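Exercise 7. Predict the joint structure of the components listed below.
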Amino acid sequence: MTTETHALGPHDPLPARPGPDPEAGASIWRLAARRLRRNPGALVGATIIVLFVLVALLAPVLAPYDGQALPGRAQIRPTYIPGPSADHLLGLDRFGGDLLSKLIWGARASLTIGVLSTLLGLAGGLLLGVLAGAFGGWVDMATMRLVDLVLSVPSLLLAVSIAAVIGQSPRAVVIAIGAVQVPVFARLLRGTMLAQRGQEYVLAARSLGLTRRTVTMSHVLPNSLGPVIVQATLMLATAVIEAAALSFLGLGGGSPTTAEWGRMLTVAQNELEVAPRLALWPGACIAVTALGFTLFGEALREALDPKTRTR
Amino acid sequence: MDAVDGPLLSIRDLDVGFRTDQGTALAVRGASFEVHAGETVAVVGESGSGKSTTAAAVVGLLAPNGSVTGGQIHFQGIDLLRAGRAGIARVRGKEIGLVPQDPMSNLNPVVRVGRQIAETLEDNGVVRGPAARRRAVELLDEAGLPDAAARAHQYPHELSGGMRQRVLIAMGLACRPRLLIADEPTSALDVTVQRTILDHLDTLTADLGTAVLLITHDLGLAAERADRVVVMYRGEVVEQGPALDLLRSPRHEYTRRLSAAAPSLASARLTPARPSPPRDAPDTPDNIVEVDGVTKVFRLRGPGLLGRGRDLTAVDDVSFTIPRGTTVALVGESGSGKSTVARMVLDLLTPTAGEIRFNGRAVSGARRDRAAEVRFRKQVQPVFQDPYSSLDPLYSVHRTIEEPLRAHRLGSPDRRRERVEELMDAVALPLDLLRRYPGELSGGQRQRVAIARALAVDPDLVVCDEAVSALDVIVQSQILHLLADLQQRWGLSYLFITHDLAVVRQIADEVCVVQGGRVVESGPVDQVFEAPREGYTRALLDAIPGRSLDLGARSG
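Solution:
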């Protein structure tokens, strides 16, 4: 901190702390990124996420067969499902589909549902949260009671009900999971906005004669987004699991041969004794993806934690 | 143990390092000093000087990323650094008592205070069971807690800050230690409370023959309370010696600056607000602000959903005026309502009754139109207490100072950049800080940025709400000089809110003493300081640490 000398006044000859400041000109986000790079949890999480996203994007290139194809149909017997072979690295499923191909295409389906539903939940939550956090008073009261009402219903039950009402389709799953997430984001954002509104920099901004909208949009909201972004990462993990759960319950639509991890689990439960690998592989994919998002989310939370920020 | 000759505590060439993102940082470098039996030694320094780290190293309570990297700590002849975890734990509490800094966070909130002291006694094997409970009450009584038997059954949140600090003192002295380490024991308390607690601690440790290692940032307080003073600066002990000698003839440059900056030792205003009072014509007083019989009542929420609310009168019929170009200070302890007055003058709160006039026109909250509000906001600007929360952490310094200019569409982008650079110059900040973010600035630098932002719109009145209270003495003195200098150059008027009478003396022309929401005494600073009329004002003045010291011919 060579600049410290200046603050000490011009007339004193005291030595300044030597050495350049490596963090000069860095915003909170850049500092957080730097901290993330040093966190092994974040690296593992990010690697998992990147890997699965790549697999999902490159599914047509990577997968040996199409998601719906049943190349090994002829080899299936009522009491026998062929295991791994040179043609089918992870073996076949009940209907003669290639397990590896279905997992790869399933990554695409599951991640899409997870990301879309979280985006939906985030959008709804931001809207309600900003409404409650910015206006306060009866708007806040009404919004939050509504949110409380939704929160009081168990999330999976709510998602099942919504999906059942809309009908069996992947779109229904996205909407159901997104709707369940809205209250979580709304509450979190409103809480952080209320806390930020009490900060002195907000009073200072008001004293500068800025309009309420400017103060909210350019000071309060940006400073409240950190926890919401962390929560979104963590929610992605939950969304992937819930998507699997809803598909498992048969609410995702499609046929038994649809390449989607939850759907694959449903079918596999009948063959658990004959071919447990049919359940293990999609189960592991769901768990590892969720783990990746959770690790990254937790690391992000630590990196953005005001207590660990350099003051 | 008494057979051991020599000092009770001896620290020699102590190095303490902290592992950080950027490698190991030395927080203490080659520190050496001694504490003899029954003696009070004060370690003085600003935040980051390593004074608290040294104390933590003695009792083996360094943060997890810190470690002693060199030197020796001997207590009663035992090498504490070789004693191991168990060895230090045996000494800690029993032989070395500790009074921590913050009475708010150092008591367990879910355990009754009597129980917490009894635990200390039991853990150290002094007494157990009912005897420990009885002893706890005795100790609380001894620490000066009124009605100790009843208080022992209360939870920490039911006690005031001063009472909690007494509980911590009782805890620190519970096992009759030979040495008591008190780390800023009263910094979080009001001055009058601070004084009674320190007085009590003095008599208590004198009676018990306990040596005290007092950690403080306040040189005046150190000189008043300690036999010897150790001055630390950036991890090194730069000077030590008998308290008065050190103050009268400081040898090291830093000690000289510290004693020059200590507000408690200063005796006069920094620079006169005006060379001579020019507009003192009695028939037309030129007041920039007139506060006329202002009252503010807050409605507190009652218990439960339907509980009836309670009214709290925070400000009760307060009147004062700020003559243009001068500084008026509102001084009072926490909860006195002084900050509420400041927020009403800033029009961030609306008075329940009474009127505040700015330049003769009423400041009246929501009723004014937008243009009038902007006009008012441009003329009155705040500087808040906490330099860590008064700047938006996501805004660079440049953006922070530019914001008011951009919001009010003042000047072209180029002109604004020039203006920002002018302002940086005015608050004596180097231009290369413009790209930095608040998280990378020191407390003093942040406060300068906050002042620059306040001055950007060229205000007439600046409301400083405890603007220097969170700063180290030297930085505090620099900011006060800056404010005084800006006032002289730009003819600013200040409303200065503070709990620190010593600061009032340095910056203000007139002072209003506030107690319980009312102004109990007001007048020119010299008059109030030389001849206080009210008992409360006298108590506040007496509580300024170092005031009793006779330092001979000092000029402020």
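Discussion. Chain B has a mean pLDDT of 84.
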